[in-house]
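quick one before i forget lol
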Amino acid sequence: MDNNKIFDINPADFVKLCQKWIDDRLGINTKIIDVRGKSSLADFIVITSGNSVRQVHAISQNIQDSASQMGIEPKSVEGEQESRWVLLDYYDVIIHVFNEEEREFYNLERLWQDDLRPSKQTK
């Protein structure tokens, strides 16, 4: 998706900034999944957790505020009111900020394990 870059920063650099912004609000067990060539949705998926609704909100708000200061606005934000699972769609980077219970239940990391992804070959 690099060819369709929306912002003046490449997705890999934006992910590094997101990691810092997550760390600033003490995000838990942050995973960055490189899906370049594996998905048409994004280049990177970031998954992190907070211990409480308040922390999930603080993490997602810090990402949005920090990115906005750079002139980067999300395409969409979902789940912000409940703040149990907030999805931030920054085009080439999709960020999931979970309450720990929701993260464990949905287990998105499992979807991107090599052996569970659908094969590109059809039989």
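fyi Residues 84 and 99 are 5 Å apart (CA to CA).
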